User: Fold this.
Amino acid sequence: MEKWLPKGRLLSFAVPLVAVFLGILIGAIVMLVSGYNPFVAYSALLQGIFSDSYYVGETLRSMTPLILAGLAVAFAFRTGLFNIGVEGQVIVGWLASVYVGIAFELPMMIHLPLAIIAGAVAGALWGFIPGFLKARFQVHEVIVTIMMNYIALYTVNYIIRSYLLVPGERTETISPTASLASPFLQSITDYSRLHFGIIVALIACVVLWFILWKTAKGYELRAVGFNQHASLYAGMNVERNIVLSMVISGSFAGVAGAMEGLGTYGYMGILSGFTGVGFDGIAVALLGANTAIGVFLASFLFGGLQVGALTMQSRAGVPAELIDIVIALIIFFVASSYIIRWVMNRIKKEGI
Assistant:
């Protein structure tokens, strides 16, 4: 392996794998202490994901917003920013896309892209505010984005309740011409909720990779994130790049919200709390080492665990909440990557 990968890159691949292994291992210990058989539990989880086409479809459907939310966080990380406001950007993107899907009557070739773009623009605008405050006044983006999450939640609920509410505490259903629903994908997955959003998410992975690694602007954004003073000395516009980074990150998150509004649900209801998609996106980005392929694989793991937890509960009688513990442990070990790296270096040095 070392022949083909540099030491740093090898560690980048190994740390997430070790984190997943430790999370699953300690999760098994928690199950044993709680009186459940971890072998039966994990077997039921895997069978639920892979043995039934319905759960395969639901896993892919669950992955779709996670991929986009993870890309949003990863893009900001790669450019030196920590976008904790992905959750709020998902919410405003969801509402904007649904509104366009309801308010306009257009051919699908125009209506569907317009609704997705509306979600991206809404998320971008929600990302612009912390980006501008960071660039112009050095206000830390973490503080602003946390507050923007709550502003998004309550503002969106107010708009729905005041202007878009129909019986059932939700908006009207979007027009079929703005829907990502796919009867074909549903039929081949035993009528799951799988929709064309998975294709949008895969395209977004390519877009992130291309922007960051194949364009001059992507190099500039990464340079500013790595060292603002050196970038300024090199003639780069640091403030503009900070704002642009948050705008692009927010647009990915806004599209994640559009996938929920145009694909999974077809409407938006009044939210009693956060969707969780944006916060899960942080974990996905960390586990995926802030790379496009890593985010895709991490979202598959998280989506599979979330869907498989339901089958684990129904087939093995193990509470689904135990999977939340496993996910939390994986996140913990990813966040503690320094310890994992130190142990791996010690093992290699001592030849154990």
User: Anything to note?
Assistant: Residues 1-6 have pLDDT under 50 and may be disordered. The first helix runs from residue 7 to 33. Residues 65-272 form one domain.
